[in-house]
Amino acid sequence: MSDPEAKPEIHAQNLTYIHYGLDKNAEAALIDISFGLPKGSRTILVGANGAGKSTLLQIFAGKRLISQDGGTEVAIKGRDVFRQYPPGVTFLGTEWAMNPVVRGDIIVRDFLNSVGGYRHKPRRDQLLDILDVDLDWHMHAISDGERRRVQLVMGLMGEWDVLLLDEVTVDLDVLVRDDLLTFLRKDSEDRGATVLYATHIFDGLDAFPTHVAHMRLGKFVTLPAPWEAFKDVDTGNRSRLYSVALQWLKEDRDHRRGLENNGRKRRGAQLQDVPSESEKFYSKYDYSH
User: Where is the segment annotated Disordered (predicted)?
Assistant: First the structure.
């Protein structure tokens, strides 16, 4: 049982973030986010593509710089993630597998040792078995799923206090994914470690979370809430988390379509009779007839 007086292990206050880039009129990706997660919790972030989940995780990982005006706070283990980044935090995201360095002709054994694998041999070996990784693989000659397994061995072989996961199980087969989640749950329970996990794959996850949260268009619709509160959900033949996520995502779609009916830019097919400039240009070079 967590101490209600204890400070949150993961904490955000008044967090707003905008991806400016080339678009000076960009909408905020995160809007006045405030929440806290207790030590030892395992929270599943649910939300449609573009809800702000990845941006939130990247900010906690210190990968996106934010303005700290207006009382904005972003902290892990009581430390500001930009001014005094805490030790023991691991972030695993999908962009790693696209890095040309990890697609080079390097043997997995050498790759893991180059990042300190020899210092964590017991946990490294346990993860090699769980993730079914061959130390003699060449990184440039393996599949995306196998490369993802190597990433997970690399990221998890050292003991972590806080784990930020952004869709990193998407390439794993169902058996390896289940074994990995069992390992992470036990690691969290045994050491009081904290997990914040954004995913779109909900089957087989009912036993994993302590909390769930729902994001929509840069805001929390449902702040992190104890998973036990959803025990009476009508699931039909589906898993409980799948059923909760499916209902939330349907509500997200209906909400967005309501905004589109009131002037927000519409997704999907463009309802217009006049050909766009792009259609006019490329149709001149269509030699398929």
Answer: 257-277
> What are the residue ranges spanned by the domains of the chain?
1-87+208-260
What stretches of the chain show up as alpha helix (H) in DSSP? 53-60, 108-114, 121-130, 144-156, 174-191, 240-261, 277-283
Mean pLDDT value of segment 243-265: 91
pLDDT of residue 1 exceeding 50, the answer is no
Of residues 92, 63, 85, 87, the one with CA closest to residue 154 = 92
Dihedral sign for Cα atoms in the order 111, 115, 119, 121: negative
Q: Count Cβ neighbours within 10 Å for each residue of 189-199 and write b for 16 or more, e otherwise.
A: eeeebbbbbbb
Residues 6+ apart with CB under 8 A from 108: 133, 134, 135, 136, 137, 138, 139, 150
Q: What is the CA angle 142-146-150, rounded to 5?
A: 110
Task: Report the percent of the chain where pLDDT is more than 70.
Answer: 93
**Single-letter residue type at 65:** L
pTM of the model: 0.89
Assign domain 1-87+208-260 to a CATH class.
Answer: alpha beta
